[in-house]
């Protein structure tokens, strides 16, 4: 058999082989086998040296055409196999859009956040701004500018975690009073602000104490604000958050940053005011501290206390949530047990 006949045989036989290959990997090894350096075509081209010179061009042409033919057969087969694979895959992965979907579990805001959201909505409706302040706070704002100088005895009630002597985890949201008073431009109108956030105390956790809890601070400063405005505002909070049958009662109290100071009670959630074990048979439950902002607080923040004045209050959403839902251990709010938290669905 001449070299040419040999090549022709390879062409015919191997073309059939190519058509029979059923996977891409095998097709690739066949390509290497046929067209690679050690393949029959390369070999034949090498053997051309032994041919008489006048036969070489036509043999070379023939060998090249065999190579092209095999190459294009391989490419055709590759395309076919790829198409087959895709079709099989598409068939396999067919999506039945009529099948019922898998429900996505929907989250919800934490119960304390739900209460804060309600309070925010209410106050935004009355034209207050909502601001948040730093939890890592300066002694200056947390205490000094709130009329609690360095050796003030009332500091004892609010021991906290100190970062340095002058930097601490804030014990109350009240420093936001000083921070906003300092910046407020009264020529633009009154200051009306609430500030929700987390506060810290060096307390041992028990059913009614947590070393970390929430507060919402509120402050209104303008020219003719009276205690009646404070009471009206607190009554509105009680009615909006809990319902019309809830009333507010103010009792004299003491806070260094207000004068006079009050403690506000709300109608007992449990008995509606009749008297029960929850309210210690008084019909009232203490929910927040408030008062008329102390002139010292205004003056230290650069506000003329002869001209401007107003009220402030600080309430605890944790306590609100405990009372509203009858939760008897504040620690439940911070354990992140999903079984506990999902009870307070927003809809329910
Ligand atoms: N900051 C006080 C506390 O943590 C609560 C408070 C009382 C805030 C009276 C006020 C206020 O704004 O007027 O105990």
From TrEMBL:
Give GO MF terms, alphabetically. ATP binding; catalytic activity, acting on a protein; magnesium ion binding; phenylalanine-tRNA ligase activity; transferase activity; tRNA binding
GO annotation (BP), single:
phenylalanyl-tRNA aminoacylation
Q: Where is the Aminoacyl-transfer RNA synthetases class-II family profile domain?
A: 111-323
- EC id: 6.1.1.20
Tell me if Protein biosynthesis is a UniProt keyword of this record. yes
Q: How is the cofactor bound?
A: Binds 2 magnesium ions per tetramer.
- Report the subcellular localization: Cytoplasm
**List of residues binding Mg(2+):** 259
One Pfam assignment: tRNA-synt_2d
Q: Name one GO cellular component term.
A: cytoplasm
Q: Please state the protein's primary subcellular location.
A: cytoplasm
Q: How is this protein named in the record?
A: Phenylalanine--tRNA ligase alpha subunit
Gene name as annotated = pheS
């Amino acid at each position: 058999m001449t070299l040419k006949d040999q090549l022709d045989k390879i062409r015919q036989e191997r073309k059939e082989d190519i058509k029979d290959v059923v996977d891409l990997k095998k097709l690739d090894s066949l390509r290497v086998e046929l067209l690679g350096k050690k393949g029959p075509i390369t070999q034949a081209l090498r053997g051309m040296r032994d041919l008489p010179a006048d036969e070489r061009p036509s043999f070379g042409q023939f060998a090249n055409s065999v190579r092209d033919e095999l190459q294009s057969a391989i490419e055709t087969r590759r395309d076919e196999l790829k198409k087959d694979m895709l079709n099989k895959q598409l068939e396999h992965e067919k999506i039945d859009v009529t099948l019922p979907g898998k429900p996505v579990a929907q989250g919800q805001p934490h119960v304390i956040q739900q209460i804060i959201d309600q309070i925010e909505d209410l106050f935004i409706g009355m034209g207050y701004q909502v601001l948040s302040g730093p939890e890592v706070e300066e002694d200056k704002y947390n205490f000094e500018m709130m009329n609690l100088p360095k050796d003030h005895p009332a500091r004892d009630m609010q021991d906290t975690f100190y970062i340095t002597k002058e930097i601490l985890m804030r014990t109350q949201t009240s420093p936001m009073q000083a921070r906003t008073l300092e910046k407020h431009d009264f020529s633009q109108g009154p200051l009306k602000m609430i500030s929700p956030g987390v506060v810290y105390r060096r307390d041992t956790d028990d059913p009614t104490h947590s070393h970390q809890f929430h507060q919402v601070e509120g402050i209104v400063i303008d020219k003719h604000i009276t205690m009646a405005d404070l009471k009206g505002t607190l009554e509105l909070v009680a009615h909006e958050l809990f319902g019309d049958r809830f009333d507010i009662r103010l009792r004299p109290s003491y806070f260094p940053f207000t004068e006079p100071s009050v403690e506000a009670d709300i109608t007992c959630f449990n008995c509606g005011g009749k008297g029960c074990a929850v309210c210690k048979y008084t019909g009232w439950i203490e929910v927040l501290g408030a008062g008329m902002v102390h002139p010292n607080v205004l003056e230290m923040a650069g506000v003329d206390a002869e001209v401007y004045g107003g009220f402030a209050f600080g309430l605890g959403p944790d306590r609100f949530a405990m009372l509203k839902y009858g939760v008897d251990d504040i620690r439940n709010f911070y354990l992140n047990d999903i079984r506990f938290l999902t009870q307070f669905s927003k809809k329910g």
